[in-house]
Design a protein that fits this description.
With about 425 residues, the protein is mainly α. Helix 3 packs parallel to helix 6 and helix 7 runs antiparallel to helix 12. The radius of gyration is 21 Å and the shape is globular.
């Protein structure tokens, strides 16, 4: 067997062992993060939350996330992925279930903030964890397999959330939105226990790999780390937090995540604003948008790995996403074409993400990667606070989300322009 064939076989084995579990974890994580978008379809009437209250509460998650992201990722590096990811999941699952009691604005804000604290470190922790197993040349496609969970959570979560809101309303005296938080939060606690049993920290501790397979992986990753040192990419912990490249990546990610969370939190309301009232139909339509995005994510990521080109693909997806947002606002009077534009926006935004995460992991490693990846993710996720809050304020003030969609489109285009300024070589 040739060296190339042997490597392909080993990394395929690792992917089949790790990615399905990580994929399921991310589906549950993202569902718990954004299911408040569907809950709002009923909460607005049941507890009287205004669009501004909802938008601020949806964004409060990301303040907690921002404050605890870097410490959480450093603790993952210290204590190991298995223990720390399990801890994150159990805590966030419990807080997510507690969201069923968020009947006042204050409690809504507090629980959303605590949910962010509980989940802090999960997404960058998984990014870091993948770098323990796969060299840079293989990461875009691996990130895409894992991050396609974002799209799949929309495909599954839309119809599921719509069904829960309709079918469970009144059961045991609870509203449908209360059942939504309870039923979609519980799997995180269960999966936290599964992680303790199934996840291995690094290749060296994986009993399902042969010694030869462990050596192959470790030699490639060590060669990659040595190349980074030779190229001057040996960052200290402090440097990884303040390096201009890291800060630029954080600003880029902020622009991209404004688009992501604009879609994630407000898509049900946007679809409803097109004249569709039934929660189940809203869920099915949102699932169709995410289905297109799932295919787009995989295709773009595989092409990026095959060509070794990163920036061009990110810029192209940013233009597609930004144009889609702007077109959806301009075509608001035409529901079908507006949904086509939103489909383009969703596909563009989601396809950026797996390729984007090859950039910081190309020049950061070890503890610097733990801190730097978390810092980029922290700054970026402030977009999760800014976008929902901005959309809620605009919708309440102007009675429409059209102006907000234009802003999201502009931010994506800014992110694409900044990508052209980045040099990670």
């Amino acid at each position: 067997m040739s060296q190339q064939a042997q490597e392909q076989q080993v990394y395929a084995k690792v992917a089949w062992r790790l990615i399905p579990l990580l994929f399921v974890l991310y589906i549950v994580a993202y569902l718990d993060r954004v299911n408040v978008g569907f809950a709002q379809l009923q909460m607005k009437t049941d507890v009287g939350f205004s669009d501004a209250v909802y938008g601020l509460g949806a964004g409060m998650f990301f303040l907690g996330y921002f404050l605890f992201e870097v410490p959480s990722n450093l603790l993952l590096e210290r204590f190991g992925a298995r223990l720390w990811i399990a801890r994150i999941m159990i805590v966030w699952g419990m807080v997510s279930m507690a969201m069923m009691f968020a009947t006042t604005p204050t409690l809504f804000y507090v629980l959303r903030f605590l949910l962010g604290v509980g989940e802090a470190g999960f997404a960058p922790g998984i990014i870091l964890y993948i770098t323990y197993w796969f060299p840079a040349a293989r990461r875009a496609r691996i990130f895409s397999r894992y991050m396609t969970a974002l799209a799949i959570s929309g495909i599954i979560g839309g119809p599921l959330s719509g069904w829960i809101l309709s079918a469970m309303a009144g059961v045991n005296g609870w509203a449908g939105w209360q059942w939504l938080f309870l039923l979609e939060g519980a799997p995180a606690v269960v999966l936290g226990i599964v992680v303790m049993v199934l996840l291995d920290d690094k290749p060296a501790s994986a009993s399902w790999l042969t010694d030869e397979e462990k050596t192959l992986i470790q030699m490639q990753l060590e060669a990659e780390r040595a190349a980074k040192v030779e190229q001057g990419h040996q960052y200290t912990l402090w440097q990884s937090l303040v390096a201009p490249k890291v800060l630029l990546l954080g600003v880029m990610y902020f622009c991209f995540l404004c688009g992501l969370y604009g879609i994630s939190f407000w898509l049900p309301q946007i679809i409803k604003g097109l004249g569709i009232q039934d929660p189940v139909r809203i869920g099915m339509i949102s699932a169709m948008l995410y289905s297109v995005a799932a295919v787009s994510m995989v295709v773009v990521s595989y092409h990026s790995d095959d060509t070794g080109e990163r920036r061009r693909y990110i810029v192209g997806c940013a233009v597609l996403g930004g144009g889609g947002f702007c077109a959806s606002a301009l075509l608001g009077a035409e529901p079908v074409w507006s949904l086509v534009a939103l489909t383009a926006a969703t596909a563009g935004v989601l396809s950026i993400l797996p390729v984007f995460w090859t950039l910081p992991t190309a020049f950061l490693s070890g503890t610097a990667a733990a801190a730097g990846v978390a810092m980029v993710n922290s700054w970026g996720n402030l977009g999760g606070f800014a976008a929902p809050s901005m959309i809620g304020f605009v919708k309440q003030s102007l009675g429409s989300t059209d102006a907000a969609m234009m802003v999201l489109g502009a931010l994506l285009l800014v992110g694409g322009i900044l990508t052209l300024k980045l040099n990670v070589s």
